[in-house]
Amino acid sequence: MRHLRGGRRVTRLIEAQGVSAQYGPTPALRGVDFHIDGGEIVTIVGPNGSGKSTLMKLLVGALPPSAGGIARAPGLRLGYVPQKLAIDPTLPLTVDRFLDLPRRRPAAARAAMLDRVGVGGLGSRALNDLSGGQYQRVLLARALLTDPHLLMLDEATQGMDQRGSADFYALIEELRRETGAAVLMVSHELHVVMSASDRVICLNGHVCCQGTPELVRSAPEYRALFGTGTHGALALYRHEHDHSHDHDHDHDHDHDHDHDHDHDHDHDHDHVRGADHDHAAQSDTARNTDATRPSRHDAGPVVSTLPGLVEPLTDQPSDGGLTRTAHCPTTKAPHK
Amino acid sequence: MTGLFADFMIRAALAGLGVAITAPWLGVFVVWRRMAYFGDATAHAAILGVALSLMLQLPVYMGVAGVAVVMALSIAAMEKGRPGLPADSLLGVLAHGALAIGLIAVSFLPGARLNLEAYLFGDILAVSWSDVAVIWAGALAIIIVIGARWQSLLTATVNPDLAWSSGLNPDRDRRILTLALALLVALAIKVVGALLITALLVIPAAAARPLSRTPERMLGSAIAVGAVSAIGGLVMSYVLDSPAGPSIVAVSVALFALLRLVPMR
User: Fold this and answer.
1) N or C: where does chain A have the smaller number of CB atoms within 10 Å of the terminal CB?
2) Nearest to B246 by CA among B264, B231, B232, B233
3) CA pair distance A241, A195, nearest whole angstrom
4) Above 80 in pLDDT, residue A166?
5) Mutate to test the interface with B, among A80, A101, A122, A139 (most CBs of B within 10 A)
6) Alpha-carbon distance B28 to B149, whole Å?
7) B161, A62 in Cβ contact below 8 A?
8) CA distance A152 to chain B (A)
9) Which one, of A72, A68, A133, lies nearest residue A283 by Cα?
10) How far apart are CA B220 and CA B200, in angstroms?
11) Whole-prediction pTM value?
12) What's the CA gap between A16 and A51, in Å, rounded?
């Protein structure tokens, strides 16, 4: 079950057909078709109020669709990483206790999973005392403990800086490779997320367009929603990838190298400065909790963890083309 | 036998303990989920239940539980329907509306007027052995149900979507919590009365928070606070000749204040 893609049998995990969500006067979603298969990384991007979170709620079963249908593979295990927990300060919750929701796990399994996601030794800390990055990793650890077929992340890196987000997504990509779990992400952080995805779905109440990151990024529908200002950072990560091919990809490496070198240098500079600051802070935390254990944050410059973000996309010919919906905006839509 | 260990005092202690150690099982969720107003509305509706029971010559528990269930379920339905009113305002309307209508209904019953105070503030010194039996049977039912749904309720409290994604049903859990609250109201009406039931839910749980690092320890501490309040309140009532229900609540408030001095864990 490691790799279901690449010509082998593909398991359809979730399929939504013609799904609408209308609970008030205006519909949050209308006529959305969606699917995700085993091992895929799919990212949903869209502006605020575009229905991203509503779609997530529909997919996890928290909301019934007002029209259309959603089918899940029988026995499907979802590892859901919510955007934010609504933990009232009156609810005392340690990391270990949180990892035991909804089912209790052996202490050794909890500790090993915290180690795996880079927050080892934090088990006895109160959840509300964690930093933003630690918090998200703990949420991720809980999701992974359910041995999911599909990992679902809702704005998982909100509040992290660019370096933290990049690290986090690199970890997701590693975990996908290790476990074979499919990944569905919702994000507005297009520059980092999109480069890691097999497929990007651009959402604005309906599916505007979908396809590979490169195709969506250059699609007029996408640019109408997001402008063109974000692809510089994507270019940065692709650029770094060119310089380190030393890890074991088990697929071919023919990316399209259409990135913009002018953008690279500006972004590279800002990125590294911001990263150093954060790096120091996170490493301190790691040393405080366990002096001997090598932290993933101490493992060297961030670029070494980034190449995993860039996946070859050519092994999925069926998704190679950009799919458009007729009523997509090609001028900037008025939105909040 | 007379004095502190008179029969009626033993019955009162057993009734008080039964309610005091059961209320925290729901009280912690009332605090974590900010449902205090919801508890108020359900409890205040109990007076209407008392009036109905007396009118139809049913046991008070049945009328109170019935009205509390109807009240709780209609609140839940109205909150879902979003009538364009904030939830706390809606609950304020319903809580005091139910109380006012209940008071009017009771006033039309001949002779019941004399007993009104007992239903508003409780009359724990007057509980019978059959009251004690009803209280403990109901208490056991609540503890078993909430204990069995504990993990699920906790997950839904932390994040409902997370619960849905794990194959749980937070809506069903919420209904279970609601029905358990209605049952507790019925059990507690003779002990502390309709006006002070929410106090037994909220105060021990809130008092336990500084002592606790996990949800289970908070529950355990809240049960301890509740038990000490019940016994302490009865002793206070005996010594000072103060009303028993308010004395129980006063002791729990004193414990709450004392435990505020403990640094939050």
Assistant:
1) C
2) B233
3) 11
4) yes
5) A101
6) 14
7) yes
8) 9
9) A133
10) 15
11) 0.79
12) 15
